[in-house]
Amino acid sequence: MAPKTVSIVGSGNWGSAIAKIVGNNVQQRNDVFSTIINMYMYEEMVDGKKLTEIVNMQHENIKYLPGVKLPENVIAVPDILEATTNADILIFVLPHQFVQKICEQLKGKIKSSAIAVSLIKGFAINEKGIQLISHQISEILSIPCCVLSGANLAGEVANEQFCETTIGSKNEDTGELLRQLFETPYFRCAVVQDTDTVEVCGALKNVVAIGAGIVDGMGSGDNTKAAVQRLGLMEMIKFAEIFFPGSKTSTFFESCGIADLVATCHGGRNRLLGENVVKSDKTIHELEKEILKGQSFQGPLVAKEIYGMLKDKDMLSRFPLFVAIHLICDRKMDTKEFISCLRNHPEHM
Ligand SMILES: NC(=O)c1ccc[n+]([C@@H]2O[C@H](COP(=O)([O-])OP(=O)(O)OC[C@H]3O[C@@H](n4cnc5c(N)ncnc54)[C@H](O)[C@@H]3O)[C@@H](O)[C@H]2O)c1
Ligand SMILES: O=P(O)(O)OC[C@H](O)CO
Prior knowledge:
The protein has helices at residues 13-28, 51-58, 80-84, 99-106, 133-141, 154-158, 172-182, 195-217, 222-243, 255-267, 269-279, 284-292, 299-312, 320-329, 338-343; strands at residues 6-9, 37-40, 45-46, 49-50, 74-77, 89-92, 115-118, 123-126, 129-132, 145-149, 163-168, 187-192. It is α/β, with parallel strands linked by helices. Helix 8 runs antiparallel to helix 9 (222-243), helix 8 (195-217) packs across helix 14 (320-329) and helix 10 (255-267) packs across helix 11 (269-279). It binds nicotinamide-adenine-dinucleotide and SN-glycerol-3-phosphate. NAD(+) binds at residues 10-15, 98, 154, 269, 298.
């Protein structure tokens, strides 16, 4: 069989870390994969030069993953159609708010036999309510879309510190192909078929991590933070049970579940946001600009999306932690009220 061409759609903090892994792997497995990888990069000027040109000259994404060398077979391409022409495998890894626009541009322009894999942690909103990003990609492009999600803080992965991840694929052969594309001795991939739950975990843990940051900002101890994580996990499980029937509890014990929740509540950008929401009165947008310098917090947007959906369905009282986190991010609830939310949580009734 002809080697498969891989394209990466996205080149931020995680996109660049994954480009390092995939760029190296395709060189070692060149019987299975073509060795040149196009990486779509949203063009911007850095120090007066185009970021794509800097990446292609220096083999380093100096804005989103400074200090990490990327393999030379990863080529940054500013044109989305040029980046994805001939791709057999499309890796989607960009903040979820940009997916619809990118997919609309790709519609009818990619190989009909291509497959996608989404590394994105977020939800889309459409007229029916919440939609998984992998479903959105699959629906717009008319191709299957798998997922990859786990306890994977990009900087640590890029520095080759051991971690696990979870690939969700309903098709066993595709799951094995993706494992070959992503697995390294420091990035251990487990494949499960319960793809929806893998993705739900990735989106919701970003919301819980803001709660962990809020209690950090308030100076509460580790016990309080553990309570946020436990109650958050209970809401994540309930959310999956109600809105994604058939979801398996065992998936929450994979890297995409409990491990990612713990990693993000301790070392993630969303945790940092929660801490700063307590310590400053700036808006989320101002904090994002100030703290992340171009990177993106996904938690506040997901919290807002699920708040709107739960309100429409008259279910706000069943998810008080998610609701409080949204209201605090929106500056409609005082951070001091967060402890009462934990104290009066329905899990204690
Ligand atoms: N960073 C991590 O540690 C990490 C780990 C696992 C999963 N994720 C998930 O991966 C996804 C991507 O995150 P990331 O960290 O790579 O990105 P990031 O937070 O670094 O986001 C910035 C990216 O968005 C791009 N961008 C800005 N405006 C754009 C536009 N209008 N259209 C298209 N792109 C635009 C920027 O060029 C940059 O590449 C998210 O869903 C995130 O939750 C992140
Ligand atoms: O830095 P965060 O909060 O976006 O989390 C990053 C990853 O999702 C951790 O697995």
